[in-house]
Write a structure and sequence with these properties.
mainly alpha; AhpD-like; 6 helices; 66% helix
Amino acid sequence: MADPEYERILSQLRLAMLNDCACEETLSHAQESARVAGLSAAEIDAALGERSFDVRTSAVLALGCALKNGDLPAYAKAEKYALACGLTHEELAYFMSMARQFVDAKPTSFGLPVRP
C-alpha cells in the first residue's frame, strides 16, 4: 500500500498523531516528510489540527485520534464514518497499524477493536 494517495494520508495521520509531541525534532521531521509527500503548508497545518481537506483522510485522522486518546465511542463513530466514506476494513486496519506505530501503541491498546 505504498501508493502516493496512501503516502499523503499517512503523512497527515503522522502529523495528527504527533501534534502534541514535545520533541521539536520529531515534529519537524514529520513536517518535512509531509512536504516530501506533496502536502501544502495549509494541509500540514490542517493535519496538525487533526483535520484534512479530504473527506477520506479526515475519517482516517478521526480514527487515529480516537485510538490515540483511547476513546472507544469516538473510535466506533469514526469507523462507521470511514466505512461510509468508502474506506475498506483492510485500509482501516492498515492505517490503524501505522497509527499505533506513530504513538508506539500495542495492537490491542485501549481495548479498541483490531480487525485483520
